[in-house]
């Protein structure tokens, strides 16, 4: 299927009026004005800032944020370089609870659907389980990897947890007992991300060896390997119906830097590619179709950009530049019209899907 490359033509910068100096713990309303606008032959638009009221909340973390996941339609869970896991109400701009227990940076977070429980993985080689309504101490610990844990996925029935690491292993855990029930090792399979396919016993896994593996949790065996890509695969995300998934590629200067759509029912080749980022694509998400009226995919990249793509054609529909944020590290769908984007330099961005002028994204808050 033909993919459409997003080509940018930068106009001369305009004068910017911004007000900074927000005090910790207080909500600040600001006006940010468009610094750049691009006209592109495909008709899609790109803006770095919209003329909208912008709210700056108390920061969730004091350092870089590496991972974020939605706990429900109001709360998100995030982890970062400050070794803490934070439950945050992004609608009110308030920290709900902080959890400390890891000795090193948090690498991944994952939530149990329709529950108050969630998990965090760390460079300290462990995974911890937390409960929002319990104490700030970890409810369960999952040690077993020899190196940093870089993959974390919960089964649809919440009974099992799969973890992956740079030690080339995947471990399958019983959530209730905290016991490891299966172990698999593949040479040179440096895990970068794990995703459990909704409604299925299968787990998707990306790797530094440029491959994507589909694991069967019933015995923890490789059920399928997708055709190898040209670059390291950094992330994967399955669609809600479990039929398709998107993988993300590393890269630099526009080489690589793509996201790829795959069909789990026809696994011989990719369906579509989303080409237009200029640095590593770190995360992706399927946006709810009931809101967008068409199947669309969002990606975030180390180039400080979040892009919305037409899922089927590969056309770039809109690009939002989060200038000054450093690499964008993780994406999560907060509610049908909200995206949460973690960044290296500016914490977490709250993005809103807007249809007033067609499909676009607006940054409405940061914390």
Number of domains: 2
Anisotropy-based shape: globular
Determine the CATH superfamily of the largest domain.
Answer: YVTN repeat-like/Quinoprotein amine dehydrogenase
Report strand %.
Answer: over 45%
Oligomer state equals single chain
* E-strand count: 34
- Major β-sheet profile: 6 strands, mixed
CATH level 3 topology of the largest domain: Methylamine Dehydrogenase, Chain H
Indicate the CATH architecture of the largest domain.
7 Propeller
Q: Provide mean pLDDT, rounded.
A: 88
Just give the CATH class of the largest domain. Answer: Mainly Beta
Q: State the separation between the terminal residues, measured CA to CA.
A: 39 Å
Portion in helices: under 10%
Structural class: mainly beta
Helix count, DSSP H or I runs of 4 or more residues: 1
Unreliable stretches (pLDDT < 50, length at least 5) are 1-43
Work out the radius of gyration. Answer: 20 Å
